[in-house]
Amino acid sequence: MNKLLLVAPLLVAATAYEKGTALFAPANPAAYLNTAPLTSATPTEVKSVTGIQGTQTTATVADVVAAANAFIATLSTSQQSTLLQTFNQTNVTKWSNLPVNTTNRIGLRLDALTTAQQAAALAVVQAATGTGNEGFNEIQQLRAADDNLAANGGGSAYGSGVYLIAFLGSPTTAGTWMLMFGGHHLATNITYSNGNVTGATPKFEATEPLSFTTANSNVFPTGTTIAPLSSEASGMLAMLNGLSASQKSSALLTQTFNDILLGTGQDGNFPATRVGLQCSQLSSAQQDLVVAAMAPWVQDADDVTSANLLAYYRTQLANTYIAYAGTGNLTSQSDYVRIDGPNVWIEFSCQGGVVYRNQIHYHTIWRDRARDYGGNFYTTVLGTKATAATQTFSVYPNPTSGDDALQVKLTTPATTASYTLRNLMGQTLATKTFRGSAVQVPTEGLAAGTYVLSLEADGSEPVNHRFVVK
User: DSSP letters of 12-27?
Assistant: First the structure.
């Protein structure tokens, strides 16, 4: 059974930040770097979406694909052509932090669908996202917030129906495709490849107002008190409040931030230098607060992916930095917090109100340097940058059994070339220099899992191919 998790089998930490998830600590962590994927909870039937508050359990990729194809079956031919888009560098960027218009998003709008079609569409999103107060429940909270804006002066640009769903590529457990769902203040982008989750980012979330009581039953029952992103704000605040005065001074940035840096249109533009306070200088308890601050974003992914990613981000804490600007209280316009690691990037920014002009509202983003859009387009760590890689070299067979050498063929013969074989933790397993148009890479002894082969030819920038050992 295909499980909902990143294609990278990651270390599992002893401390669980995900509600209701029991994790374990391996006695020999290195032994788990490329082992078989961790199993998820038993899949469950997708329940009614109206008023759901995190009631579903973890589903599998097969469940997501089944729900996606069930949704497709409810649509007309014309609707299907709008829903099904090409998985390419242009289409993956069709998300925004602005109200929906005809150019900043693609797919089918919920309010253009029948009630049954809406339920089928949301069943896909529910199956693909986390349980508890994050994931699908948080998506529902943000949709309810848009209903609030529409009823309090925002107008028709806002509302729980002004959300779009698109499939980039055909939903399958064999190929590569992406689920895109979003609207004002939400962008969910989840990439799948060969029955695994290869990326759950970029994930943009924001909210205005910060809290409210529902006045209709479009999403939640009338009279429900909702505070979207309150767990994100609480986690960041606890992290900052856990610092000493001297540590806060080191973490304080001199710039003023009017918004997040890496929002829409900023794919791949990660700062070259990490700034602020390095987490290697923190105590174990303070580091726990950093991981806990990451959790509300990471837990928007399905439960198994989020557990694996949190554990992986923990292994990178020594080279992760935290920084803030403004008061550090997250109560004033231009208050800002950042977590910047070798892979993880999370920003939290306090904006001025748009509809509620006397209040602030939150903008946030979660990115992963290696895994945005599944690592296919905009990456800086272990990403494939697939187009550039295929123009340089090919690998065969992929997947490989591990008994045979990987055959590497260059598009153009090289005078001087080298390859580096790494696992998805970034650890170097083998390197070799060669010349000519072909080389064999031994795979005997590699555990089942996914690996990255980086190749540099005649001084050009290294490009990477992923391959799988069965």
Answer: --SS--STT------S
Q: What percent of the chain has pLDDT over 70?
A: 84
The DSSP string of 247-295 is HHHHHB-SS--SS-SSSTT-TT---SS--SEEGGGS-HHHHHHHHHHHH
Least confident of 32-41, 109-118, 260-269: 32-41
Does domain 386-469 bear CATH number 2.60.40.3080?
A: yes
Cis peptide preceding 397, ω within 30 of 0: yes
Q: Can you say how many angstroms the Cα of residue 245 is from the centroid of all Cα atoms in its chain?
A: 33
d(CA 104, CA 99): 9
- Cβ pair 5, 190 in contact under 8 A: no
Mean pLDDT, the chain, integer: 85
User: Contact at 8 Å (CB) between 197 and 176?
Assistant: no
- Please say if the pLDDT value at position 100 is more than 60: yes
Of the candidates 207, 147, 149, 152, which has an alpha carbon nearest to the alpha carbon of residue 350? 207
For strands 163-168 and 84-85, give the pairing.
parallel
How distant, in Å, are the alpha carbons of 90, 92, 101, 160 from that of 104? 11, 11, 6, 17
Report helix, strand and coil shares of the chain as percent, to nearest 5: 25, 25, 45
Q: Report which of 132, 128, 116 is spatially closest to residue 67, judged by C-alpha positions.
A: 128
Cα–Cα distance measured from residue 137 to residue 40, given in angstroms and rounded to the nearest whole number? 19
pTM of structure: 0.75
What are the structural domain ranges in the chain?
29-375, 386-469
> Which pLDDT tens digit goes with each residue over 393-430?
889 898 888 778 899 999 999 999 999 898 765 678 89
* Relative orientation angle of helices 115-128 and 61-73, to the nearest 10 degrees: 170
Give the residue-averaged pLDDT of 438-449: 89
Distance, in Å, from the CA atom of 190 to the CA atom of 179, rounded to the nearest integer, reads 5
